[in-house]
What we know:
By secondary structure, this protein is mainly α.
Amino acid sequence: MKxxxxxxxxxxxxxxxxxxxxxxxxxxxxxxxxxxxxxxxxMLAKQAIISNKEAELIVMALTSxxxxxxxxxxxxxxxxxxxxxxxxxxxxxxxxxxxxxLHTARSRNDQIALDMxxxxxxxxxxxxxxxxxxxxxxxxxxxxxxxxxxxxxxxxQRAQPVLFAHHLLAYFEMLRRDVERFHDCxxxxxxxxxxxGALAGVPYPIDREFLxxxxxxxxxxxxxxxAVSDRDFVIEYQAAASIAMMHxxxxxxxxxxxxSAEFGFIELDDAYTTGSSLMPQKKNPDVAELAxxxxxxxxxxxxxxxxxxKALPLSYNRDLQEDKESLFDSVDTLLSTLDVFAGMVRxxxxxxxxxxxxxxxxxxxxxxxxxYLVKKGVPFREAHSIVxxxxxxxxxxxxxxxxxxxxxxxxxxxxxxxxxxxxxxxxSVKARNAVGGTAPEQVKRQLxxxxxxxxxx
Length: 457
């Protein structure tokens, strides 16, 4: 079958066929395309546009074609341009002239819009599922180490002590927002475009509500021009995927740092690390590094679809063929990254002795000393300045806060007394008992809330 050559006097140049063909990548839409065609055939019969017998033949043949594709025995042809024409050609081979009736009241424009929406809805379902699995892995690791203390950082400098679980729950919250973003994206993808035709609608008594029910859509497109040219839902998936990959990349960076000898806060499982071709001692966090690197390609995919869409006049333009490869790549990259991260986090071992030791080194309790003075009536800015001077004195004399004598404390403020030595990393953590803080009581509540969230899905 030579597609769409009725008004042309010349055959298409082979290099043009190769340049315009999309079958190499859009064939992965076959399930969605066949599902849409089966629903369309049933609708045509319901509306007496074709007979029930013809619809039955078409549905049986389409089901058979789907089986051929799933078994890997379907012969795709570049000459037939895309997945739609490959399926239609095979359908006509199987049922003859009846197969030619399937395209009644349909265009490839609303057909591909339908396929893409079905694909994105499925991708969103899978993405949310894997986001929740990673949330569970983070939660399991947090609960297993809920009493461990580590340095909290700003500017990658030790700032204040926090519970390790509190730190991990920050990533839980990031992923929770990701889940919400993908749910929002699903709402916009959940619009049934079939029945829009090429751009103006179709002159047949079709039943779009029937199609929406058959295909699991909650809404029907209101404007046929917008329906065939809209790719906002693709852009939204790419944007949500970019934000999710940014979150994963931040987690990857911390896992890379924490697993280094310089930090030593965690040990990644052997199954999620690699060795060196030269240095036998190496245990490289390649999974985390690759995730950090792959984030850039997902960002690039978002920019690509935004650039493709930025100057397209209504309605459909062939530029829209370029919406697929970048989307497929982002979906594949995000899903595989989420999958491998869940395993990497779940098997990681936290080294509480190392993290506690890190909190007890240096001057991480400086803010607590300032708060100590505030509670004795010193204005915070004055207390901040006093403790800043105390820190400088301790550094110059190579002493920790514990090693400073009470006379040294009092030389900076008369409000210092022996109870200053009761300030520890444990007391520091316990003191931050405001909602959302790192105190054990608050973290216990946060863990329970997080567990309720993931278990209620």
